[in-house]
Design brief:
Chain A is built from 2 helices and 9 strands, in the order αβββββββββα. Chain A is α+β, with helices and mostly antiparallel strands and about 190 residues long. In chain A, a hairpin with an 8-residue loop joins β8 and β9. Chain A has helices at about 1-25, 155-194; strands at about 30-35, 35-40, 45-55, 60-70, 80-85, 85-90, 95-105, 115-120, 130-145. With about 170 residues, chain B is α+β, with helices and mostly antiparallel strands. Chain B folds into 2 domains: about 1-35; about 50-165, Immunoglobulin-like, CATH 2.60.40. Chain B is about 20% helix and about 40% strand. Chain B contains 1 helix and 11 strands, in the order αβββββββββββ. Classes of the chains: A alpha+beta (about 190), B alpha+beta (about 170). Chains A and B meet through β1, β8 and β9 of A and β1, β2, β4 and β11 of B.
């Protein structure tokens, strides 16, 4: 009887230790894929690039994104940047692609460069009354360059020019031929009258 | 005589059926135990960095207005899963209590422990601390703070954000 009770107590203690260990061990760890993100955006248009964040931990992670162009150029309108989705949940050991979209104003000059950042932050409900809460995140440096507006591709321009030349040459040839034909007819008419 | 012939024919047919059954089974077994089929697979492993902070809360205790706490409160930034080094960035928010607040710049950070309040002021904009967090390892950052003179009493809280950037 005593032996059975001791075994039961030991089992309960072991279950408690195991569950505590599991609770302590489960955590999220935010990460990002390395490398800068460089935008080259035509004036008056937008460009979208991906920013990949990762959860390297064993618990789901809630996150939110902050993206901003942090520099400015005198007399130029600063481009805007948006992130989609702006928040979400990453499952353990999974990655998540965030779409960053930069819109370049049409009235800016080409060849200008702005700097910005995209931040992915782990949403936390930890509190520390009388102290500081340490929040973790990842930060990506962003470079945005303005480019000339995209025109027609060169091939199309050449093709158009060729078509115009051909039509012009054909029209001229037909015109000359018609003119020769009408002159010949006039001569014949004159000959008959005489 | 006819009966014997019938039985012989039946026997031969049965043996033939058994023979072909065994042949069929042998071929299937031979097929199942044939040399392994190779399938080529590939994966791209990108350069990645991670960050976790320990501890995730820090306390400065009771700090009277006009006094400060030296930059010696340790927080470790750790990357256990990454494969590239990263740099630590840090930013913060204002100290807030119910209906009260004082500025984020009253908190400071330093790459090494200081015996006085003399670190770099925290701001709402992420600043590059130049502290390298090695992949598979960790590095330390130290925090301190100061309570402005005349600050109303209360229990204030601040959020400090640590970022890995690679």
């Amino acid at each position: 009887m005593m032996h059975k009770r001791n075994s039961k107590n030991i089992a309960l203690i072991l279950i408690f230790i195991l569950s505590t260990t599991v609770l302590v061990a489960a955590h999220a760890q935010i990460g990002e894929v390395a490398g800068p993100i460089n935008f080259n955006v035509s004036l008056g248009s937008s460009q979208t690039l991906q920013y990949t964040i990762v959860n390297g931990g064993s618990a789901p992670m809630n996150f939110y994104i902050k993206a901003a162009i942090t520099s400015s150029i005198k007399n130029e309108t600063t481009p805007t940047i948006t992130a989609f989705p702006a928040n979400g949940t990453i499952l353990p050991h999974q990655q998540y692609a965030i779409n960053l979209t930069v819109h370049m104003p049409s009235n800016d000059k080409p060849g200008l460069t702005w700097q910005g950042t995209a931040q992915a932050l782990e949403a936390s409900n930890i509190t520390a009354p009388g102290g500081a809460v340490i929040q973790t995140g990842v930060l990506k440096g962003i470079t945005v360059m303005s480019a000339k507006p995209k025109g027609l591709p060169v091939e199309y321009i050449i093709l158009f020019a060729v078509v115009v030349v051909v039509i012009t040459a054909l029209s001229y040839y037909l015109f000359i031929r018609k003119r020769k034909g009408s002159r010949k007819e006039e001569k014949n008419q004159k000959g008959k009258k005489i | 005589m006819n009966r014997n012939l019938t039985w012989r024919i039946a026997g031969i047919m049965m043996l033939t059926a058994v023979f072909f059954s065994m042949l069929f089974l042998h071929q299937n077994i031979a097929y199942a135990t044939s040399p392994n089929q190779n399938v080529n697979a590939n994966v791209v492993v990108p350069s990645t960095c991670y960050l976790s902070a320990t501890p995730n809360t820090i306390t400065f205790g009771s700090v009277p207005p006009g006094s400060n706490y030296a930059d010696n409160v340790l927080v470790n930034g750790t990357d256990t899963n990454g494969n590239v080094n990263s740099y630590l960035f840090v930013s913060g928010g204002n100290w807030v209590a119910t209906g009260l607040h004082f500025g984020v710049s009253n908190s400071t950070w330093n790459p090494t422990s200081l015996s006085t309040f003399a670190g770099n002021a925290l701001s709402t904009t992420a600043a590059n601390t130049a502290i390298l967090v090695p992949f598979g390892g960790s590095n330390s950052i130290y925090f301190g703070m100061e309570v402005p003179g005349g600050q109303a009493s209360g229990t204030y809280t601040q959020t400090i954000t640590m970022y890995a950037s690679c």
